Amino acid sequence: MKEFNYSINGNQYKVEIIKEEDTIVELEVNGTPYTVEMEKPVKAKPVVISRPAPAPVTPKGAPVVVPTKTMPSGSVVKSPLPGVILEVNVKVGDTVKAGTKLMILEAMKMENTIASDHGGKVLEIKVDKGASVLEGAELVIIG
């Protein structure tokens, strides 16, 4: 037997389910018996779950390791925190050294200098002045 307590518009109701059969439910509300006919629930179509194929293995049983695709050489300078780009101080093709000021990011009403962590050539600038960026967003690619 299941019991439930409800409060509707400030009135308290104690509901006890006495018997359930298919769509007919016998219950008591504050001691008064009721027989309720429920609408039949729509039967959901079964979900077919397909399992992925097993990973390939060598004749000896070792997993086959596929080399990952290499990205163009270069490292990505990412945003250390969310904010807005106020200035972009470099352009594609510029040669930079470690510590070169790449851009200024305003975050929490403070201006933060985004500097290169290594030297190289600026391959791509992923954001423009005025762009809002999230923490970890790619800003500049240096190769």
Number of domains: 2
Specify the biggest β-sheet. 4 strands, antiparallel
**What is the helix content?**
under 10%
- The succession of helices and strands, N to C, reads EEEEEEEEEEEE
Distance between the termini: 71 Å
**Could you give me the name of the CATH homologous superfamily of the largest domain?**
RNA polymerase II/Efflux pump adaptor protein, barrel-sandwich hybrid domain
Structural class: mainly beta
Work out the strand percent: over 45%
Question: Rg from C-alpha positions?
Answer: 32 Å
**Mean pLDDT, all residues:** 86
- Regions with pLDDT < 50 over 5+ consecutive residues? none
The CATH topology of the largest domain turns out to be OB fold (Dihydrolipoamide Acetyltransferase, E2P)
Number of strands: 12
- How do the strands line up in the largest sheet? 1-2-3-4
CATH architecture verdict of the largest domain:
Beta Barrel
Shape: elongated
The first-level CATH class name of the largest domain: Mainly Beta
| Number of discrete helical segments | 0
